[in-house]
C-alpha cells in the first residue's frame, strides 16, 4: 500500500483476484497487471489507485506488482454499493480510469473524464454511460460494445505492457520451488484464478503420466476442489508431482514448459493472458470441454495435449543435441 495524503488528479479503479481458495472473485489477473505495469512504464498517467475487493485480494495485488493508496470492500460483494464513496474520493479528479469491466458501475454519476479499459465486456453492467471512453484489446470486444451502442476503440498503446512482460517478470528457478529439472512442468492458468478446477489438472496429469511422461503439475492456491485433486493424486500412487502455488501462476512463468488454459472464451482477457505467457516463451495449450462438465467426462481431450507435449519434447531434444558452433 502507498502511504500518501496528497491530492491526486487521476484516479485508477482496479480489482485484483481474491486469494481465498474457490471463492467467487470480483477481480481478475489481467486488469491488475495492466494497471500496475502501465503506470510503471508511463503508458498511462499515474495517480491515486483504489483497490476494490476484500482483504485477501491485497496479497494477490502485491504479488502482481500493484501498489495502491486505498482499498474499499464492496458490501455483499456488490461494487455498485460503493458508488457514494467513489464519488466522494473522485470529486476533485480530472479523470477516472477503470481497469475492470466489473467495476464500470462505479463510473455512474461521476462528472469528469471517464475511461474503461475493457478486457471482458460480458462482465460489465447492463448500462454503461456513453460519456465513458471505452478501450479494448480485441476487435470482437470492440464490436460487442458498438452493438450495445457504446463507442469503443481498439487500444494500440497498452498492449506494450504484455509485449514487454518478459522484462518485468520475476526471476524464479525450479530449485526454489522444489521442481525437478528433469520433469516436464505444466501449470494451469486463468484470468480469474478461482475459475480453475484443480481436479481437471490432476486428472489430466494422471492420463499424461500413464502415457509415459515424467511430470510436475502446479495449480494456483485459489483453485477450487484442491482436496479432491489431492485425493485423486494419492489414489494414483502419487506417481507425479502435484504442487500448489501460493504466488500467482503468471508471476512464476520461467519454471513452466507449458501452461494449460481451460477457461478460454475468446474475449480480450483470454487472448491477453495467453499473449503474456507466450511473450515470456511459455507455450499455452487451450483446453475446451465442448460443454461437458470436466475432464473426467471427456478424457479424449488429453489427446491433443499429448500431441503438443510430444512436439515440445521433440523441439527441446533437437535444441539440446544440435552441435555448438565453434
How is this fold's topology laid out?
Layout: E1 10-14, H1 29-40, E2 48-52, H2 57-63, E3 70-72, H3 83-89, E4 95-98, E5 113-117, E6 132-136, H4 139-147, E7 152-154, H5 160-163, H6 165-168, E8 184-188, H7 198-210, E9 215-220, H8 226-235, E10 241-245, E11 258-261, H9 268-279, E12 284-286, H10 302-321
Parallel strand pairs: 1-2, 1-4, 2-3, 4-5, 5-6, 6-7, 8-9, 8-11, 9-10, 11-12
Helix pairs in contact: 7-8
Description:
This protein is α/β, with parallel strands linked by helices. It has two domains: 10-163, Glycogen Phosphorylase B (Rossmann fold); 172-321, Rossmann fold (3-Layer(aba) Sandwich). It contains ten helices and twelve strands. It has helices spanning 29-40, 57-63, 83-89, 139-147, 160-163, 165-168, 198-210, 226-235, 268-279, 302-321; strands at 10-14, 48-52, 70-72, 95-98, 113-117, 132-136, 152-154, 184-188, 215-220, 241-245, 258-261, 284-286. The strands form two sheets. It has a seven-stranded parallel beta sheet, sandwiched between helices. Strands 10-9-8-11-12 form a five-stranded parallel beta sheet. Helix 9 (268-279) links the parallel strand 11 (258-261) and strand 12. Helix 7 packs parallel to helix 8. The protein is elongated and about 60 Å long. Mean pLDDT is 84; it is low at 1-7 and 290-299.
Amino acid at each position: 500500500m502507498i502511504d500518501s495524503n496528497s491530492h491526486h488528479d487521476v484516479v485508477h479503479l482496479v480489482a485484483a483476484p481474491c486469494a481465498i481458495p474457490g471463492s467467487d472473485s470480483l477481480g481478475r489477473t489481467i486488469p491488475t497487471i495492466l494497471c500496475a505495469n502501465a503506470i510503471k512504464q508511463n503508458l498511462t498517467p499515474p495517480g491515486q489507485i483504489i483497490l476494490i475487493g476484500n482483504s485477501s485480494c491485497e496479497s494477490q495485488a502485491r504479488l502482481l506488482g500493484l501498489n495502491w493508496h486505498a482499498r474499499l470492500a464492496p458490501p455483499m460483494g456488490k461494487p455498485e454499493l460503493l458508488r457514494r464513496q467513489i464519488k466522494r474520493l473522485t470529486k476533485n479528479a480530472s479523470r477516472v480510469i477503470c481497469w475492470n469491466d466489473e467495476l464500470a458501475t462505479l463510473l455512474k454519476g461521476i462528472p469528469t473524464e471517464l475511461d474503461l479499459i475493457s478486457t471482458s465486456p460480458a462482465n460489465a453492467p447492463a448500462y454503461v454511460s456513453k460519456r465513458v471512453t471505452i478501450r479494448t484489446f480485441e476487435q470482437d470486444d470492440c464490436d460487442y460494445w458498438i452493438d450495445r451502442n457504446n463507442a469503443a476503440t481498439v487500444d494500440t498503446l497498452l498492449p506494450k505492457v504484455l509485449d514487454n512482460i518478459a522484462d518485468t517478470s520475476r526471476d524464479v528457478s525450479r530449485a526454489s520451488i522444489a521442481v525437478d529439472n528433469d520433469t516436464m512442468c505444466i501449470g494451469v492458468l486463468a484470468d480469474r484464478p478461482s475459475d480453475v478446477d484443480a481436479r481437471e489438472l490432476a486428472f489430466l496429469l494422471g492420463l499424461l503420466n500413464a502415457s509415459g511422461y515424467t511430470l510436475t503439475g502446479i495449480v494456483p492456491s485459489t483453485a477450487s476442489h484442491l482436496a479432491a485433486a489431492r485425493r485423486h493424486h494419492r489414489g494414483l500412487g502419487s506417481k507425479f508431482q502435484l504442487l500448489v502455488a501460493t504466488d500467482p501462476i503468471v508471476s512464476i512463468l520461467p519454471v513452466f514448459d507449458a501452461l494449460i488454459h481451460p477457461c478460454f472464451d475468446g474475449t480480450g482477457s483470454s487472448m491477453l493472458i495467453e499473449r503474456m505467457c507466450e511473450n515470456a516463451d511459455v507455450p499455452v495449450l487451450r483446453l475446451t470441454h465442448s460443454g461437458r462438465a470436466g475432464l473426467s467426462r471427456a478424457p479424449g481431450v488429453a489427446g491433443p495435449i499429448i500431441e503438443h507435449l510430444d512436439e515440445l519434447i521433440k523441439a527441446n531434444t533437437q535444441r539440446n543435441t544440435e552441435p555448438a558452433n565453434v
